[in-house]
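Q: Give me the 3D complex with glyceraldehyde-3-phosphate.
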Amino acid sequence: MSAPTSGPRTLLALNWKMNKTTTEARAWGRELAGGFERGDVEVAVMAPAISLPGLKESLPGGVDVGGQDVSAHESGAYTGEISAAMLRDVHATYVIVGHSERREYHGETDAVVAAKARQAQAHGLTPIVCVGEGLEVRERGEQVAYTLAQLRGSLDGVAENVVVAYEPVWAIGTGKTATADDAEELAAAIRGALREQYGELAAGLRVLYGGSVKPDNVASICAQPNVNGALVGGASLKVDDVLGMVNALK
Ligand SMILES: O=C[C@H](O)COP(=O)(O)O
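A: Here is the predicted complex, encoded as structure tokens.
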């Protein structure tokens, strides 16, 4: 099964999370370059910020790099934070904001996520805004209302240069993947909310699914009408799995 031929270009966004040293990151890039054939699918590697300098040079041509988080502030006394300008300076084109791990472990609210997304855009980065419900919300059947409320808050004042990733928290790193129908239900609802905010431009925006995506399920999920790619954690760490996903989407 291949990715849809109409609509925005499919994006395979790889989130390494807190994995790989800088040395390992460059070796991974060279290994990918050995087997990667550029096709219709866009690939972007969201590496730890410390590994971004030089990473793009080790990757095959056309593969983008991005950050996993960004400061909401321009610059200054914010110890430990990485600014949008710093990410741009090392060739990042994307940055993840509002990942559920940031929301859960670092207390990031929708307002903070929106501020980060706006700051990213101010420096020419495309934010990948993550939303999605936890297990209790899913079990109550309230996943659409919950996710759309989170989305609206997280897109407050955010311009249309944005990617949305729907990641049900119960499917992240658990091996429990949402069905393609579950992914499409939320992706369609998200598309509707994007239409309210951005009008006709919403049709060209990418809505990704994330949560235990791997080579054997990526194609069926990305074949859904409103799913335009995937945000991949665990299966992004091995080059063979990434090549398997790219090939599955051809
Ligand atoms: O950012 C990626 C998501 O959290 C999904 O992670 P996973 O593919 O390991 O489930």
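A quick observation: The chain has ten helices and eight strands.
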